[in-house]
């Protein structure tokens, strides 16, 4: 039984198709929300329906343009707070600024914490996200944070790539992603490999060596996101040089900024798998190698469980 009023789902302008798909799974309609930009660049927001006493979920990944989408989300949250919504959950499939989760230089900000403060002050009561870049970001909030995993969606497609698990190897593109790759390898009964990577400067990396056996195997390079694709493309090159039969890229968030799409199109990858936490741009949609898998069903189950006060942990697989 719902304890927080009627379920309402709103969408910002960042990924309305995902919000619509979530509503389709839940059998409800999107609550209208007007978002416009004034001539001077300021954002105008107006909720188009009564939300007083309701349980409201706002779907808005903070992907590019990151600052615009983040500000838009904060304004929607503030509007809902002032409209007396009983509870507001921000559904942020992709959490922008997540890579700036600690001080790496003496006079640098912890941007992920600042974003958490923005959202809290704006009026959010709960956060729902997928595959945070750093799990400790959950601790930046003093509200409940549900960090789902896209594994159920991605694993299903990876299984279709091979007939025999012995033909498959899950590859972590760096040491930091080993735990994620090991979890996938265990679920798939596949072997594990790690790429020794030396980062030269921001957004540039050089893959140096492969730890593990990839010869005559389908190598799936697994990461939480693909940004400029420099790491992924170099990983594919090294794996093919080490004798891999084919190489597939797999990531939850297809950020695909800068030259990423061109790099991936010209790379050794046979397929690039991402989810729709971030909508693909036209350039990426035109790339035959890139395939987008939907997380709408996963998010819909989480929204239903949160709304009905059921367990969300059953989805943490």
Descriptive report:
It is built from nine helices and 14 strands. The chain is α/β, with parallel strands linked by helices. The strands form three sheets. A seven-stranded mixed beta sheet has the order 10-9-8-11-12-13-14, sandwiched between helices. Strands 1-4-5-6-7 form a five-stranded parallel beta sheet, sandwiched between helices. The radius of gyration is 20 Å and the shape is globular. The mean pLDDT is 94. One of its GO terms (molecular function) is magnesium ion binding.
Distance between the first and last residues' Cα: 25 Å
Overall geometry comes to globular
The total of beta strands comes to 14
Number of helices: 9
CATH architecture of the largest domain: 3-Layer(aba) Sandwich
Domain Ribose-phosphate pyrophosphokinase N-terminal: 7-123
Active site: 197
EC number: 2.7.6.1
GO molecular function: ATP binding; kinase activity; magnesium ion binding; ribose phosphate diphosphokinase activity
Task: Kindly list the characteristics that best describe this protein.
alpha/beta, Rossmann fold, seven-stranded mixed sheet, five-stranded parallel sheet, 9 helices, 14 strands
Write the topology of this structure.
Elements (H helix, E strand, L loop, with lengths): L6 E5 L4 H11 L6 E5 L5 E5 L7 E5 L6 H17 L4 E6 L18 H12 L3 E5 L14 E4 L2 H9 L8 E5 L5 H11 L2 E11 L2 E8 L6 E9 L3 H12 L4 E9 L5 H6 L3 E7 L6 H4 L4 E4 L2 H12 L10
Helix pairs in contact: 1-9, 2-3
Summary of the model, kept short:
With 317 residues, this protein is α/β, with parallel strands linked by helices. The protein has nine helices and 14 strands.
